[in-house]
Amino acid sequence: MEQTLQASHLVKRYGKKEVLHDVSLTIEPGVIYGLIGRNGAGKTTLLSILTAQNTHDAGTVTYGGQPVWENEKALADLCFSRELSGQILFGQNTYKVKDYLLAASMYYPRWDKAYADQLVQRFGLDVKKKICKLSKGMMSMVTIVLALASRAPITILDEPVAGLDVVAREDFYKILLDDYTETGRTFVISTHIIEEAANVFEKVIILNNGQIAAVENTEDFVASFSFVSGREEDVDAVTAGHEVLHTERMGRQKGVAVRAARAVMERAAAGRDVDISPVSLQKAFVYLTGEEAHHETA
Amino acid sequence: MTGNFNDATSIYLQIAAMLEDDILRGVLLEQERVPSTNELARAYSINPATAAKGINLLVEEGILYKKRGIGMFVAQGAHDKIIAKRKDAFYETYVTSLVREARALGLTKEELKAMIERAQQ
Amino acid sequence: MKLLKFNRNALAQLFLLLVGFQVFFSVLNMLGDRSQEYKAGYMTSVGGLYLLLFPLIMMTSFAGISVHISLTMGGLRRALGWQLAALNVICCAVVCASQWGSMWVLSRMFGSDSPVFLARFPRLAMLASAGTLVLGGLGLWMGLCAQRWGGKALALCALAELVVAGGVITWFVISFLKGGAAGDILAWLLAPRASAASLAAVAAGCAAVAALLHLASNCLLKKAVVRV
């Protein structure tokens, strides 16, 4: 019943500036994806194009083989819960939470009112409050309620934990997994809070400067990096021939992040006194996309 | 099960290790049902696919087996299998790093032996 | 009709606001000089002309916000097009209803003594009613342009529209008072009796202009995006 959402060679320009270059992506059914990228990488633009809320200049976006643009069947299966803002177009967003819930019940064919009410209560939201009067955390909670209660086969959340404190964030991951284990629907979650969420994502999509840098199983991706440290000569010898992503130096000590699995490094290190440690998803992301991202072989 | 994951190894390996620890400690007895992937996912806020990978690893090693439609169970002789597996891994996990560290500190073979004997008392 | 259900509160508010506005003007007029009935009467009516500006603002807002929310939840643009047109017609109906509503309120407040009101000037009343289609259509256009140009440009355009529309109405009124071509048109509108044909002509003219505006805004709607 649920089909594949696919983007193929997407290009998006704002005036002369190209914000998405040749982006191709397949969203497989039943997977929780994490979409991570720096501010301005193009995450919201990409998600917006995937759900026919924004136009694109080249390439295609299809759902079940058919383009999503103005496609009623496709849009009935998609939900893109955007970040809410106190400002809407030219003024304050004086719509209330219950207005959004009403609109959602009209537009999402599988809307689950009981679940929405349950979540509203769990978050302690006052449905009569105007959006412009909500705190950032409460606005995030509203987007979470809208996304989860939509029961859409493909549900996309843009920065759902922005503004939530750590307790609320942990609660969100629990709620998300409760829903996922029950329904098995597809989720795409874009977030800046990478390390916490890493365990929840089965696959990770990294968007950097408008291009897809990686789409992989999260654990496999993380396991493909190592951090090697020790004396400079030893480290250089061990990492020779591998892609170096990041270098730290302190006196004669050198620490290097490489695109190579720890097992590979350990074999190369045989005998040498170097420390080989894992690289977290967050660090791997920073190394790949940070200012000093350079690609050289040591 | 502790539920605190570190980033030293992949989560699925830690899940497998946790289940093995429980079997060794007798928290999970042979022929008893182990938590399902969904239960593990919800309990530890991890993706069910990751939990499944950990469980499948143990199934492949014969420590768990699957009863269709019901769930995963601890296999007969799992306790002994785990001990044997960990004995094999003992060398790689502990001994090589022990020796390497001892070498870095300049400990002699005799000093190392004496330390081991002291610890065994 | 999703959009209508979604905006029923806004429509109710528009109705009440218009009734209040017209009652207020009529009461003001009544408290004034009774002997100047004709002049006072047209002041009330002209005041009623300014009430046309309400639908302009409402429709600008409807187009902007309703389209935004509808699109973010997967609404179809072609469906929105029809719904916005229906909303515009309903705004027009609300303006008509408000005229009857204020008459009812005034007769309740002051007994059967029917005060001077738009009903006295059928052509003007017809213009006020049907004219909301035009200004509503214009408001729609502006709201949709906001999807392209953004909030600030929209605010400026809406302000410009208000100034221009208000200015045109004021110019007609002054021309009427001082005598002039525009004033003659206003005098024609203020004729106490009007043939059904002339009423139909005013209505048809407004409807035609409104339809053109809607066609134009539909072109914009086809490529509408969610502006953040």
Automatic annotation (TrEMBL), chain A:
Gene3D superfamilies, sorted: P-loop containing nucleotide triphosphate hydrolases
SMART domains: AAA (SM00382)
Transmembrane segments: none
Organism annotation: Ruthenibacterium intestinale
Classification via PROSITE patterns: ABC_TRANSPORTER_1, ABC_TRANSPORTER_2
UniProt keyword terms in alphabetical order: ATP-binding, Nucleotide-binding, Transport
One Pfam family, short name: ABC_tran
InterPro entries membership: AAA+_ATPase (IPR003593), ABC_transporter-like_ATP-bd (IPR003439), ABC_transporter-like_CS (IPR017871), ABC_Transporter_VariousFunc (IPR051782), P-loop_NTPase (IPR027417)
Protein name listed in UniProt: ABC transporter ATP-binding protein
UniProt keyword ATP-binding, yes or no: yes
Molecular function GO terms recorded: ATP binding
UniProt KW Transport keyword: yes
Residue ranges of every copy of the ABC transporter domain listed in the record: 5-234
Superkingdom per UniProt: Bacteria
From TrEMBL, chain B:
CDD domains: WHTH_GntR
PROSITE patterns reported in the protein's UniProt record: HTH_GNTR
Native species: Ruthenibacterium intestinale
Segments forming domain HTH gntR-type: 9-77
Keywords from the UniProt entry: DNA-binding, Transcription, Transcription regulation
InterPro entries xrefs: Tscrpt_reg_HTH_GntR, WH-like_DNA-bd_sf, WH_DNA-bd_sf
UniProt cross-references to Pfam families, sorted A to Z: GntR
Protein name: GntR family transcriptional regulator
